[in-house]
Amino acid sequence: MRIVKLAIISLVVLFLVTYFFSLIIPSTIRVSRAMNIAVSKDSLRAMVTDLRQWHLWNELVENPELTHAQFSQNEFSSDQLQVTSLPSTGDTLKTAWRQQKNAQVLASGFTWEGNDDQLVIQWYFDIKLHWYPWEKFGSIVFDKQMGPPMEKSLGNLKKLLERNP
């Protein structure tokens, strides 16, 4: 009986310690990538805001695992993912990404600034986390999971736009 009590108390203390450490991790994280592109704002805006053009450069929607992909000007949809373009102003585009398997919605967006022929485009995902310790500790790898495809996509966009101004 003493061993069972010790085990229960140890598990409770371990959970509380893990929970308190998880409080250090913020409940909203941002995964972001940026790139310089030598092109006019109008060319960049046309390529980024029209979701029909995303298949030319965006690695996250041109994934072979996505089945029945359909592109329209303001929406991309497949059996696994739906991306919707939200009303935006100026030099920004905001999108909502919904994964069909868990119905989680991620806020994402593109911003670009600079003068014509030398722009900096930033692509970000804002991820809201629950209070669960395992979810917060799991968020540590989001940057490593999402960052490389975002970088490759921005590189594809840069090549595409700088080759065809």
Describe the structure.
The termini are far apart. The protein has a single domain, classed as Alpha-D-Glucose-1,6-Bisphosphate, Chain A, domain 4 (2-Layer Sandwich), CATH 3.30.530. Helix content is 35%, strand content 31%. With 165 residues, it is of the alpha+beta class. The chain has a 7-stranded antiparallel β-sheet, covered by helices on one side. The mean pLDDT is 86. The chain has helices at residues 2-22, 41-49, 133-138, 142-163, and strands spanning 28-37, 70-71, 75-77, 81-86, 92-99, 105-115, 118-128.
Helix and strand layout, with pairings?
Layout: H1 2-22, E1 28-37, H2 41-49, E2 70-71, E3 75-77, E4 81-86, E5 92-99, E6 105-115, E7 118-128, H3 133-138, H4 142-163
Antiparallel strand pairs: 1-7, 2-3, 3-4, 4-5, 5-6, 6-7
Protein name: Polyketide cyclase/dehydrase
Organism: Niastella koreensis (strain DSM 17620 / KACC 11465 / NBRC 106392 / GR20-10)
Summed up, what is this model?
The protein is 35% helix and 31% strand. The chain has helices at residues 2-22, 41-49, 133-138, 142-163; strands spanning 28-37, 70-71, 75-77, 81-86, 92-99, 105-115, 118-128. It has a seven-stranded antiparallel sheet, covered by helices on one side.
Features:
165 residues, alpha+beta, Alpha-D-Glucose-1,6-Bisphosphate, Chain A, domain 4, 7-stranded antiparallel beta sheet, 31% strand, Polyketide cyclase/dehydrase
